[in-house]
Amino acid sequence: MSFYDNHYYHLNKRLLSIIGQWPYQSRLESNTMLGITLFFTGSLTFLEGWGLVSGITDLSIIMENASPMLVNIFIFVKLLNYFFNKYKMKELLDHVEETWKMMQVGPRNEILRSYAEQNKVYTIRYTLALYTMWILYSTTPLIVSWTYKLLPINATYTARFLYRLEHVCDVDKYFNLLMLHGFISVFYIVSVPIAVDTMFVLCIQHVCALFEIIKYDMEHIQGSDFVTLELDIADDIEYHKIIECIKLHDQAFKLVPVGNTL
């Protein structure tokens, strides 16, 4: 069982696995999931671009197609950036696991648990918020279409899709197929920022935990009542605590640039 199968970090693992960016995935699984993500993201962007180019003279088409297409491009850049910094994420996760192994009991462990719990809460809230937006956005055409079918409205209704495509293909004919494709595509588009941003939260929370541990250790270092010219460093517990605090401080600062790459 992997360390990241614990309830604090399991959701982070699953989110990154969906887009094929979990550092500990097998190469086959990672490439497969990444390929699926790129296929749906790319195909949706292509269709939006096709509709935009074909209706470039229509301002309403430009407005309705350009916005989601720009969002898709932003998501693609975000995914690409994470892909090229994936090795840094592995270093971060290795450090997190090593820190937990070093501090399995005591007040230090309680600090780690506290910040890990905060990370879990933030991740769940962010995930629920964005996936709720995904469902509401993706199902809007269906809800409107069903409303016109079920309610006695005396008006002719032409199915409206997530973006303008009716000028290049028969949207009514392929409505269900396009809706299925759009639903899955938007899921992967939303999954990218969820996975990457929650990884950023994990990094920040872990660094904060390290600084909190340093604060705790420094506050509990006992001062000596006398000064001796011949220090016995090997048996000086407080000296070793200070050295350990310095090492933790150095490790925390090394992790800050990792978070900045996300």
UniProtKB/TrEMBL annotation:
Q: Tell whether RNA-binding is among the UniProt keywords.
A: no
Transmembrane stretches, start-end? 33-53, 65-84, 128-148, 174-196
| KW Transcription regulation (keyword) present | no
Identify the GO cellular component terms for this protein: plasma membrane
Instruction: Could you list this entry's UniProt keywords, alphabetically sorted.
Output: Cell membrane, Membrane, Olfaction, Receptor, Sensory transduction, Transducer, Transmembrane, Transmembrane helix
Identify its membrane topology class: Multi-pass membrane protein
| InterPro entries in alphabetical order | 7tm6_olfct_rcpt
Can you say where in the cell this protein is located?
Cell membrane
* Molecular function per GO: odorant binding; olfactory receptor activity
Question: Could you state one GO biological process linked to this protein?
Answer: signal transduction
Pfam families xref list: 7tm_6
Superkingdom in the source lineage: Eukaryota
Indicate what this protein is called per its UniProt record.
Answer: Odorant receptor
**Top-down, what is the taxonomic lineage of the species of origin?**
Eukaryota, Metazoa, Ecdysozoa, Arthropoda, Hexapoda
